[in-house]
Amino acid sequence: GGEARPARYGDMMILLRRRTGLAVYEAALRRHGIPYFGASRGCLLDTLEAADLQALLRFLAAPADALALAHVLRSPLFAVSDRQLLALTAGGADALWPTLRNAVAGDDADFARAARLLSDWLAAAVQLPVHDLLDRVFHQGELMARYASVVGEMAWPGVRANLEAFIELALRVDSGRYPSLPRFLDELDRLRSEDDEAPDEGLILGEDPSRGRVRVLTVHAAKGLEAPIVWLADAISRPRPDAGARVLLAWPPGASAPEHLSLLQRKDNQGIARAAIIDAESRAAAREDANLLYVAITRAKQFLFASGVAPARGGAGTSWLERLTDAVRACAGVEATAEGGCRIAFGNVDHRPVGALPGIPVDVGPAVPGPDLAPVGVRRSLLPLQPEQLWGTGLHAWLEALGCDEPAPARLPGLDAAQWSELESIARRLVSSDDLRRFFDPALHVRAASEIEFVLPDGSVGRIDRLVEFESDIWVLDYKSGAGSGYEQDYAAQLLRYVDAVRLIRPGKPLRAALVRPDGGLDIRF
Predict the structure, then answer these.
(1) What's the pLDDT at 242?
(2) Which secondary-structure segment (H or E) carries 215?
């Protein structure tokens, strides 16, 4: 709300790359009497609701699995009673599914519903990816409503979060591209056995999950969450290298069959024929690592700390801490500090590095950490924004809200009510002007989105103010609140980079780019 107040434990979040280090930090918090909160580590697949869904998938993969079918029938999805289940198994366990299948036209409504839905899902299981199949189960089976009706009010938020986490897991594991249910179930078994990869329970969103406690999470578990103060701990660690033999698979999305399949034992024995595929895998892994770092640092709303203890033997590759340090040191306007680090004050809102905000200085601490995990990396403290930058930020906020049909944004600190009202009037005039209305009226375009952040091919981060798709072309719009002479030329190169990035995602469709002037005019650049 723009008013200063003391920080509370609930304002703080500790993030780590891997789950294996969480226990160390939790033990330290307990030792010092600091309350903390975290989703149960690696326990999603062991929850009752996840076990219900796994039993359903096992039955759909093997309809003769009577034990899995009995589990599903007793779950809240069908809520068959013990008496009803005994009646179905009167002819023996092997006859459970044939008996139920014949109940479609019977008098028992529960049996008929179960037989009809399970038959439909069995047919879909051989055609749909796992995520799409689960989506159909959730919808046709009214799964959320049925679980909510039998779970206590206090327990329901956690159950709902775990159900949502399971269906998200189906999409996240290998991008949801597993060719069969048995293969997906095998992967779940592998995840359960891997301490570092076993999925966490779902986080309870829509409420205050911290309740005055520090949140200790992996970066993956923190997606969608934010905190005023974020500490990226163990930022010196690197992704784990491949160990032992593994399958080398090249299967492009949309292809009917793999382009390559072989067993890779050691990288030094890869051969020339597979070098390009292995190199592509390495580049994809590097992009994923950069995306994960981006997720980590953008959880911070006001302060970001990064720390790490350098390994005794060093190590190949570049750590997150080194990337953050190099990124800040590469910015213009860096000044040395007495502590051996450096300070930078960011200006132009459209040319800021990852995680930086206009008017916010960043201190980078010493390159070598001190004792007791002394903070090393980025420390941010809020300073007043420059008036012109603040005005532009406010205009962006109003245009984003109006463009996405969202509630009015909260007034920015430093702008009074009259200025905020004036910005609203300007934004409403822009979106309804003759030149711009088609970019904001949903009836006049196919789809649109605002404030889209993405990683450019060179590794830097960009943000498109407004991306609009029409039947004939796609437009990239950049809002400009200042109108100094030559500002169009200053941003032409930036727009071209954005267009090139969008072209990689949507090849084949014509792309246009333009600057939106404060007077409602449109300067078409490409």
Answers:
(1) 59
(2) strand 214-218
